[in-house]
Structures are given as C-alpha cells and as structure tokens.
Design brief:
Organism: Propionigenium maris DSM 9537
Number of strands: 3
Distance between the termini: 28 Å
Helix content: 55-70%
GO molecular function, one term: DNA-binding transcription factor activity
Number of helices: 7
Shape: globular
CATH architecture: Orthogonal Bundle
InterPro entries: HTH_MarR-typ, WH-like_DNA-bd_sf, WH_DNA-bd_sf
Keywords: DNA-binding, Transcription, Transcription regulation
CATH superfamily: Winged helix-like DNA-binding domain superfamily/Winged helix DNA-binding domain
Pfam families: MarR_2
Radius of gyration: 17 Å
C-alpha cells in the first residue's frame, strides 16, 4: 500500500464528505447553508447557543477572520444574531436564533448519516485505531 499519498487521501475524504453534506442540505430544502457552516453551528449547539467570536474560533481551531465571515453569513441567513457585549464593547457575542435551534434536528440527522457512511464496514476497534492515528497526525501539525 502506498503511504506517500496520505494527505491526498485525507483531502479527498474531506471533499467527498463536503459534497455529501451539501447534497443532503439541498435534498432537505435547506438553502444558503454549506458544509463549512456546520463547524460554527456545532460549536454553538455544544455551548448552549451562545459564544463569543473568539470563543468560536478557539473551539473550532480556525482564524477569527474565517469565523467572522461564516458568522456574518449565518446571521444573514437568520441562524444566529450578533451583538456587542454589554461588559466589553470589543467582544462580539453570537447567539443562536429560533431558526438556528430549529435546524438542530436536521443537523443531527445529516451528521449521523455522514458518520454511518464514513464507518460502513468498520469494526469498533478499527474506528478507535483510525481516530487515534488521525489525532496523532493532527498533533504533528500543532507542534510546529
């Protein structure tokens, strides 16, 4: 087995998973959202629907400028609202709207279907080994 194409394989899996998510969103009539918005929504769901912009960036491991663009789009689509913190005007607080919370069930369904597809044919032991190896690769890049 060729081991020198690992990054290409990971990239291909990322692309295929993004295509899967975008198709599922379209099939469910969800307009405007794309796979990358799921990162922000997932963070919000995991944190009771309210976070700062910096908190989201730290939670998902992306630059604040990237998160700002995604949050602005989510706000335009009605999934979140943004406002300056009452304690510190430099801090932007992001809150899920009713529409954001209502989307949670669809989000969970698509996530479950993506995981089911990802792990088709895997044993529980294989899943654990795979995750351990992927975390090891990620750690290698964090030590630079």
């Amino acid at each position: 087995m060729r081991t020198d194409v690992v990054i290409g394989v990971i990239s291909n899996i990322r692309e295929k998973s993004a295509q899967f998510i975008n198709k599922e969103l379209k099939d469910r009539g969800v307009e405007g959202l794309i796979n990358s918005h799921g990162t922000v929504l997932s963070a919000m769901y995991d944190n009771d629907g309210k976070m700062t912009m910096n908190g989201i960036a730290r939670f998902v491991g992306k630059r604040k400028s990237t998160i700002t663009d995604m949050v602005k789009k989510l706000e335009k689509l009605g999934y979140v609202s943004r406002e300056k913190s009452k304690e510190d005007a430099r801090v932007i607080e992001v809150t899920l709207t009713e529409k954001g919370w209502e989307f949670r069930d669809i989000f969970k369904e698509i996530s479950r279907e993506l995981l089911d597809k990802t792990y088709t044919g895997f044993t529980e032991d294989e899943k654990e080994v795979l995750m351990g190896l992927l975390f090891k690769i990620r750690k290698n890049f964090r030590e630079e």
